[in-house]
């Protein structure tokens, strides 16, 4: 079965890649600190967890299931079962995918379970193999390290989503297309997925940080509070990106509507200009014998002159009503947000005047 286990003995000796029998002996000794990381959980792994650690079968079923579970914390007396979420960075998807990390936290052991490779867990493994430092302060601090690293790995995704939101905002103004709309919807769905896992996770970290569980020592509670603060910041940033996506969608729809309005305006101008011209051409295109203008020497040029006069009048009318912007002076509204230095506290001339007073 795919797992990796570490044991830090009471005398500070670190043993890596221990066997199943050594795991059982270390667990029954109730000394030192045992960490077992199980990934790609199978039925065999579930049996091992139940038989070796006597975990509740409902908690083990959550580890075995590949479905996404809400962040939670269950107190089974001798141990805590904690479910938290991070980002699945190995998933090849255009929408952010989340990954679940389940932790069994006891006084002298940690069992972590995840069905997808997590960079955060691999980082903790490297630190443990170097000098065992994350395991030296106890199970509660080691669980903090696992959760804190998992949450920290959410920030790069948030930063990337913020860059995408900025690019989408520019695109919906400059050149709104169908692909732009698809980008906006993918961004909204990504923020929704993060919101769905972060919101219940805040309550889990809040409970861990306020002394509700004896397994979490008082000196470790402030560290869980720090993770809670990180979650609040991530949620605020994610909500900001979600609002930007909503605004981008509104801007896209407005831009498309404005384009259609511009198209209809051009068609209306052309139709309005050529409608009287078509009327004149239709009248003088009739072949009645008693039309007096047919025998007039200057009739052809007179009709052309009337048509030209009608065109000029209609163009002037549209220009006067701001339907035609050609030849008009455009007002530049965008200016740098700079203020006069004299209005700023700390400006050297202002300080000099105040000192003279």
The CATH class of the largest domain, by name, is: Alpha Beta
Residue share in β-strands: 5-15%
Radius of gyration: 36 Å
Helix and strand content put the structural class at alpha+beta
CATH topology of the largest domain: Beta Polymerase, domain 2
- Please tell me the CATH architecture of the largest domain by its name: 2-Layer Sandwich
Give the helix level as a range of percent. Answer: 55-70%
The CATH superfamily title of the largest domain: CorA soluble domain-like
**What string, H for helix and E for strand, traces the elements in order?**
EEHEHHEEEEHHHHHHH
Strand order of the largest sheet: 2-1-3-7-6-5-4
Please give the alpha-carbon distance between the first and last residues. 81 Å
Gross geometry = elongated
Largest sheet: 7 strands, mixed
Characterization of this structure:
The chain is α+β, with helices and mostly antiparallel strands. The protein folds into two domains: 251 residues, CorA soluble domain-like (Beta Polymerase, domain 2, 2-Layer Sandwich); 73 residues, no CATH class. Helix content is 57%, strand content 12%. It is built from ten helices and seven strands. It has a seven-stranded mixed β-sheet, sandwiched between helices. Helix 6 packs antiparallel against helix 7. The termini are far apart.
Key structural traits:
Beta Polymerase, domain 2, 2 domains, 7 strands, 57% helix
Task: Please write out the topology.
Layout: E1 3-8, E2 14-16, H1 20-29, E3 33-39, H2 43-53, H3 57-64, E4 72-75, E5 80-87, E6 98-105, E7 109-114, H4 119-131, H5 139-152, H6 155-174, H7 178-209, H8 218-283, H9 299-320, H10 348-356
Parallel strand pairs: 3-7
Antiparallel strand pairs: 1-2, 1-3, 4-5, 5-6, 6-7
């Amino acid at each position: 079965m795919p797992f990796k286990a570490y044991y830090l003995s009471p005398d500070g000796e670190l043993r890596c890649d221990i066997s199943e029998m050594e795991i059982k002996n270390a667990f029954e000794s109730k000394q030192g600190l045992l960490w077992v990381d199980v990934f790609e959980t199978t039925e065999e792994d579930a049996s091992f967890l139940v038989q070796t650690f006597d975990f509740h079968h409902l908690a083990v079923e959550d580890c075995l299931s590949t479905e996404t579970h809400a962040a939670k914390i269950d107190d089974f007396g001798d141990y805590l079962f904690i479910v938290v979420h991070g980002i699945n960075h190995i998933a090849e998807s255009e929408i952010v995918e989340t990954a679940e990390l389940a932790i069994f936290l006891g006084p002298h052991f940690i069992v972590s379970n995840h069905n997808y490779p997590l960079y955060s867990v691999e980082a903790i493994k490297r630190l443990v193999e170097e000098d065992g430092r994350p395991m030296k302060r106890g199970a509660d601090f080691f669980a903090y390290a696992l959760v804190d690293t998992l949450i920290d790995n959410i920030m790069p995704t948030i930063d990337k989503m913020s860059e995408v939101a900025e690019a989408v905002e520019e695109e919906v103004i400059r050149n709104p297309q169908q692909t732009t709309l698809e980008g906006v919807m993918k961004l909204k769905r990504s923020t929704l997925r993060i919101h769905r896992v972060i919101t219940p996770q805040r309550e889990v970290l809040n409970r861990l940080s306020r002394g509700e569980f004896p397994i979490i020592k008082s000196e470790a509670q402030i560290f869980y509070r720090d993770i809670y603060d990180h979650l609040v910041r991530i949620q605020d940033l994610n909500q900001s990106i979600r609002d930007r996506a909503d605004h981008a969608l509104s801007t896209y729809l407005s831009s498309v509507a404005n384009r259609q309005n511009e198209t209809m305006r051009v068609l209306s101008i052309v139709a309005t200009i050529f409608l009287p011209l078509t009327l004149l051409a239709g009248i003088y295109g009739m072949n009645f014998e008693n039309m007096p203008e047919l025998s007039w020497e200057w009739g052809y040029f007179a009709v052309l002159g009337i048509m030209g006069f009608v065109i000029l009048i209609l163009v002037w009318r549209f220009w006067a009503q701001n339907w035609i912007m050609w030849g008009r002076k455009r007002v530049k509204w965008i200016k740098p947000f700079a203020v006069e230095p004299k209005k700023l506290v700390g400006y050297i001339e202002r300080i000099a005047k105040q000192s003279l007073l």
